[in-house]
């Protein structure tokens, strides 16, 4: 059974509005096979505030999202803890199956 591990998180892009509760942040998560950091592949998540999401929906009328985490106050530690909880339920027989399970929540660099 492949057990996934989160090796690191990197903030790739940040967009902060005029208020502290208005943000959109792109984060890359290096995830691989437990104990083997060389196996890490990149999964992307976007963290946004309810306010930013509301504004996006008001402009577009519709938003469809996978890999979207919504939180009132940005806290990288909370994102890390959430990802670790998700990973605890993504163990599968092969890495490909494991990565596909993770990709329900984050966007895998090797999708398609």
Instruction: Give the low-confidence spans.
Output: none
Strand tally is 5
Mean pLDDT: 95
Amount of beta strand = 25-35%
InterPro entries: Imm8
Pfam families: Imm8
Protein name: Imm8 family immunity protein
Description:
There is one protein chain. By secondary structure, the protein is of the alpha+beta class. It has one domain. The chain is built from three helices and five strands, in the order βββαβααβ. The longest helix is centred in the last third of the chain and has 12 residues. The two termini are 24 Å apart. The mean pLDDT is 95.
Which terms would index this structure?
Imm8; alpha+beta; 5-stranded mixed sheet; elongated; Imm8 family immunity protein; 3 helices; single chain; 112 residues; 5 strands
Short recap of the structure:
With 112 residues, the protein is an alpha+beta fold.
Give the topology, please:
Layout: E1 4-16, E2 23-33, E3 41-48, H1 50-60, E4 68-70, H2 76-87, H3 95-102, E5 107-108
Parallel strand pairs: 3-4
Antiparallel strand pairs: 1-2, 2-3, 3-5
């Amino acid at each position: 059974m492949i057990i996934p591990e989160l090796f690191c998180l990197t903030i790739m892009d940040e967009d902060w509005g005029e208020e502290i509760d208005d943000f959109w942040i792109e984060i890359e998560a290096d995830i691989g096979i437990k104990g083997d950091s060389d196996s890490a592949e990149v999964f992307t998540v976007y963290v946004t505030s309810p306010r930013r999401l509301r504004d996006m929906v008001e402009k577009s009328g519709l938003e469809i999202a996978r890999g979207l985490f919504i939180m009132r106050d940005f806290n990288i530690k909370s994102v890390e803890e959430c990802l670790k909880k998700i990973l605890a339920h993504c163990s599968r027989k092969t890495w490909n199956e494991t990565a596909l399970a993770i990709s329900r929540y984050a966007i895998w660099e090797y999708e398609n």
